[in-house]
Amino acid sequence: MEATLVILKPDATVRSFVGAYTTKVILDQGYRVTAFKWVQVTGELAEKHYEEHAGKPFFNWLTTYIKAAPVVAMKVEGENVIQGIRRMLGATMAQKAEPETIRGKYGIWGGVNVAHASDSPETAKRELALWLTKAGLKENENGQEKAEEYAKSRQATKDYTKKLRETCKALSERRVSIEHAREAIKQLLTEENPNAKPHHISNLTEAIIQNFLLP
Ligand code: IDP
Ligand code: MG
Predict the structure, then answer these.
(1) Residue 23 belongs to what H/E stretch?
(2) CATH architecture, domain 2-151
(3) Options 49, 116, 180, 199, the catalytic residue
(4) Is 116 a catalytic residue?
(5) How confident is the model at residue 140 (pLDDT cuts 50, 70, 90)?
(6) Location of each CATH 3.30.70.141 domain in the chain
(7) CA 17/CA 26 separation, integer angstroms
């Protein structure tokens, strides 16, 4: 049986219906969640997790984004689960992901793309070992039950993906100022989930904005 590491990134957890939906899709595929944990990523963990990208122009941005709010880390098992979940997520850049995929449905823009999933058996092995030793992810602690509970925790009462993308598109085409986009995004995220912590919304907003300032 194959295993993979899935991380619900800060945009999925702050927009909690997106994290819940992604978890539901994983469970509906019949995969088993054998470990589930909320983790506030540290600088050290972020750099180790993304070490293959060290030196790339988006590396610092990426390690800041993943720390923007707590993430959910899951060990997921099943037949061909690595490829299965990669397919389900879709292409890396949110605005280019196929519309029927999770990133296509809920990714906001650029690298702000809902979730991470290991890309090969070797990567899965390395990443699972890292998160099991350095992030406190543990097996045999009711992972499946925790995932089921999270999947049921919230439905989309308001889904502003389209509005968020329109603002991002306008910013990418320099039709709105950074200040305007920042305020608009913060407001949309707050309306979507009034229970999210304001500093997590601010951090996520900044990660979305900084996407556009990458070299
Ligand atoms: P993956 O998550 O689809 O495997 P990778 O190429 O491994 O994509 O990149 C890791 C993460 O880095 C992506 O999920 C995305 O958040 C971010 N990223 C990748 N390429 C870019 C880029 O060109 N600009 C901004 N962020 C990027
Ligand atoms: Mg990758």
Answers:
(1) helix 16-28
(2) 2-Layer Sandwich (3.30)
(3) 116
(4) yes
(5) confident
(6) 2-151
(7) 14
